[in-house]
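Support request from a user on the community tier.

User writes: "When I paste my structure tokens into the form, the page sometimes reloads and wipes my input. The last time it worked, I copied everything first. Here is what I submitted, just in case something in the input itself triggers the reload:"
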């Protein structure tokens, strides 16, 4: 079976809002506010032949702010909102590290555990894939896994990423894939 290419997305501040006037943290489904153009960007990645996967640090579970079941409901609701905005905005799978920041696990970004797990599960060619995130920890995880990296950040922020764009929608507009 031929290896597939994928786009690994961080969740918060890449697909949905956090730390805004509307929502501080996403601890329940109604806290999901999609960022402008996120659904269209995901649909564009799918059209270009990329499997889209979400890898997200969600210490809120380990810290007791929500349960694993509530996190699953949040992700189900997010997928529904994405599909409602653009029928092609399919996320193949959501994977979350639910450990606390100081637990020392191999899945919490900046470690590459979530990406490596998904690459094995779906036969993904990491060198042909991208990690897109808003934090340098996302970029570190992508580099450790062997992907190309894209940072969602304003132009003043320094990054080790291969590319930098102000939003996921801007990534989709560029012809880098």
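"...and here is what came back when it finally went through:"
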């Amino acid at each position: 079976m031929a290896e597939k290419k994928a786009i690994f997305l961080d969740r918060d501040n890449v697909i949905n809002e956090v730390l805004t006037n509307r929502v501080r943290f996403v601890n329940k489904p109604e806290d999901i506010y999609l960022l402008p153009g996120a659904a269209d960007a995901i649909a564009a990645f799918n059209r270009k032949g990329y499997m889209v996967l979400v890898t997200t640090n969600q210490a809120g579970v380990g810290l007791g702010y929500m349960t694993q079941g509530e996190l699953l409901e949040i992700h189900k609701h997010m997928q529904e909102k994405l599909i409602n905005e653009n029928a092609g905005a399919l996320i193949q799978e959501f994977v979350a590290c639910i450990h606390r920041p100081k637990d020392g696990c191999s899945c919490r970004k900046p470690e590459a555990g979530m990406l490596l797990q998904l690459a094995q599960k779906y036969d993904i060619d990491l060198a042909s894939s991208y990690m897109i995130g808003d934090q340098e920890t996302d970029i570190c995880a992508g580099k450790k896994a062997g992907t190309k990296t894209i940072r969602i950040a304003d132009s003043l922020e320094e990054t080790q990423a291969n590319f930098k764009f102000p939003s996921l929608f801007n990534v989709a507009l560029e012809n880098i894939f």
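Agent notes: The reload is a front-end session timeout and is unrelated to the input. The longest helix spans residues 68-85. The chain has one domain: 6-173. Escalated to web team.
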